[in-house]
Specification:
Immunoglobulin-like, 8-stranded antiparallel sheet, alpha+beta, 2 domains
Amino acid sequence: MRADIIDTKPWYKQFWPWFVFSIPATSVAVSMVYIYFAVSTVDTLVVDDYYKAGLAINQEFSRIDAAIEQSVSASVRFNSDDGIVSMRLAGDFDAFPKILTLQMMHPTLSQKDQTITLTETADRYYTAKLKADITGNWHLQLSTIGDEWLIKNTALLPSKHAILLIP
């Protein structure tokens, strides 16, 4: 005959109660960490006025179409040693613009974004001084001061090779 085994240990010395309590305790701890990060960080990628952002996208498409019609392209070089950006512009222009705007936008850190004004130094060649460190992934957009056309590309900088900007 089999004798009944009586467990004489108190509940807090048993394995199963601690295992069962650990599951909700772990999820509460992880939730607190998520709440901390949600409250303490700023999401800079959210646009407050999405309607205006949508209208701006349509304007951007018309500027890209204008760049396609004029066959606009640019070859951009970044010299991180002396902080100079140089560019060669190509396209079907009556007269090449004297000043261009290069917007460098970081994908996740908006405080690193830069707007650089390039001035013509020779026929179709433009240069400017960089404002800050350019290490990382960047979205590049080149346009005229009057926003007549727009060409763009994405680049991992610094790069030893020229970056081609096209519509």
